[in-house]
Amino acid sequence: MASNAEAAEIFRTIADLLDVLGEKFKPEAYRRAARSIESLTEDLAAVAARKELRAVPGVGEAIAEKIEEYLRTGTVLYYERLKREVPPGLVELMRLPGLGPKTARRFWVELGVEGPNELRDAIAAGRLDGMKGFATKKIEQLRTALATAAAGPARRAIADVYPVAHELLRTIRERATVDRVEVAGSFRRGRETVGDLDILATSKDPPTVFEAFSSHPLVAEVKMRGETKETVLLSGGLQVDLRVVKPEEFGAALQYFTGSKDHNVHLRSLARDRGLKVNEYGVFRGEERVAGASEEEVYAALGLAWIPPELREDRGEIEAAARGVVPSLVTERDLRGELHLHLPADATPDTVDRVVAEAESRGYSYLGIVVGGVGPDGAPWRLPEATRSRLAHRPSSRIRVLGAVEAGSTPLPPELSSLAHEYRIVRPSSSGSVAKTPVEDPASTVLVAHVGSAVASEAAGLAPWVDFARRTGAAIEVGPGPERLDSVGARQVREAGIAVHLPTGLGGADEDDPTRAIGLGFARRAGIRADGTLNARPVEALRIGADGPSRAPTGRSRVPPRGRSAKGRPA
Ligand code: DGT
Ligand code: CA
Ligand code: CA
To answer: Cα(263) to centroid of ligand 1, in Å?
Structure first.
């Protein structure tokens, strides 16, 4: 149960509480201890076992006893007592930006304010006006901080964070001496939004890692720097934690800092039942480390199959792993093609050749390009004639190139009826509803795309599309952006027995294009496997044009089946 991070957090909170209570020197002592616990390169329990706690800088007799108490009982009575002496609202107050324990104390003592709501009222009533140290501008900042806090912590869409994370990893790999470096936390679990980034590395020369990291131009402020951990704020305000750990602990640290917290809590209770202890340094039987270098090893030591990060939310995945039935989720390597590629409106035949070459180089066996349709504004559009005809008349190509039209679920307008295409994509109209008139040829519809996540997360918005897909046999696209079908919606789609289409990011701007990884992450979070993924199927199974399921496979355009890995994760 015990962890260095948690112990440090307890001591830091003790310091804050003592500040609120008006203590003079003690708070700094607890802060110093917290910093040094955080910089330890090994488990506190190991230090305690060697009776060396008192040799840790900043740890004297009183604090050493509290660490021992924490290791024994999981908490510290002194801390529990202090928490009872200070109104909980004050702790919230002192955590607000621009406030600290000392200011919180002044509001408490001078105004009788015990929490955010009361402070808001006090500001509104003008009770801060004329208080020493509170100019109008400062009061305005407090008002903003209170409003922001009430709205909940700011989380960012994974699509926005993805390029930043990759840029930081690339810099660390290029400029520092590292062996392994990975992003953990909610990012690795493929969550729709992330609160902060958690990066883990192993290195023979840790200072080079911190140096490469904190000198990156994106870094605006170094908030905390210890021997093993550094916390920075990027210029956009995103917090990034970087930890450098020992190679023999990397798997345990990756497991611990990937979370989720609920998943970890469940794992630790499972470990206890088996007489083991699991923390960010490894799995231990007594003092002996029985696992830690790899995640596989950590899960195996607990009698579990390795669990993909996207499933680690304590929603039954641990029970499944104990029975050895972790689903093998769809991976990038399962994808055999793309059916929903939009080209720029002015795309030339060369553009077609380029994306086809890219699809070929990925080993895909088909590529569906949208050649025209009805836009969300209701206006018909089509790619230039020469570009469209390139689809049908190409120099030899190893893959099937297909044309699609994309429109709402009404019949195509007359000006598009002559547009050559092999299949149809349906998109919700801006109202999100399914038109009463069915498409003229439901059998040609293979895909529903552009389903919004706002629509998707309300069952009512997604439901008509699930019905539509069930009726027509169409698949529904997941992702790619935060405004599109998310993992919650994808789960509903899977549970209805409908296949998904995954964006491939073909023709994407650069290597940091998040399209493919994010759609894949959402699908994996929803428990989707290759067999539930339309574009993981061979071209003959797509129900498209003359290559419908009734026709025998030609064999020519097939790629050999690729191996599936239970351990695949989004790039
Ligand atoms: P986020 O950053 O809000 O999007 O979500 P996470 O899951 O990345 O959370 P974060 O950054 O606070 O911590 C990363 C992981 O580290 C978290 O999923 C579990 C683990 N962890 C961090 N602090 C604690 C803790 O105090 N107790 C436990 N049990 N686990 C923790
Ligand atoms: Ca995080
Ligand atoms: Ca974090």
So the answer is: 10
Domains detected in the chain: 4-151 (1.10.150.110), 156-244 (3.30.460.10), 250-323 (3.30.210.10), 332-547 (3.20.20)
Probe target for ligand 1 pocket from 261, 265, 311, 314, with the most ligand atoms within 8 Å of CB: 261
Point out the ligand 1 atom lying closest to the alpha carbon of residue 185.
8
Mind listing the pLDDT tens digit for each residue in 533-548? Answer: 999 999 988 877 644 3
Length, in residues, of the chain: 571
Reported as a single tens digit per residue, the pLDDT across 211-267 is: 999 999 999 989 888 889 999 999 888 999 999 999 999 999 999 999 999 999 999
Residues near ligand 1 (Cβ within 6 A): 5-6, 185-186, 194-196, 198, 256-257, 259-261, 264-265
Nearest-atom index, ligand 1, CA of 193: 4
N-term to C-term CA, the chain: 32
Beta carbons within 8 Å of 348's beta carbon, 6+ residues apart = 384, 386, 387
CA-nearest residue, atom 5 of ligand 1:
186
Q: How far is the CA of 154 from the centre of ligand 2 (A)?
A: 12
User: For atom 20 of ligand 1, which residue has the closest CA?
Assistant: 257
pTM here is 0.73
227 and 272 Cβ atoms separated by less than 8 Å: no
Beta-strand pair 197-202/239-245: parallel
User: Hey, which of 197, 264, 266, 279 would you mutate to test ligand 1's pocket, going by the most ligand atoms within 8 Å of its Cβ?
Assistant: 264
Give the per-residue pLDDT at 436: 58
Give 309's Cβ-side CA count (13 Å radius).
Answer: 26
189 CA closest ligand 1 atom index: 7
> pLDDT digit string (tens) for 84-140?
999 988 988 988 878 889 999 999 999 999 999 999 999 999 999 988 888 888 999
Question: In this structure, are residues 192 and 490 in contact, taking their beta carbons and an 8 Å threshold?
Answer: no
Per-position b or e across 383-416, b if 16+ CB within 10 A of its CB: beeebbebbeeeeeeebbbbbbbbbbbbebeeeb
Query: What CA–CA distance (Å, rounded) separates 350 from 359?
Result: 14
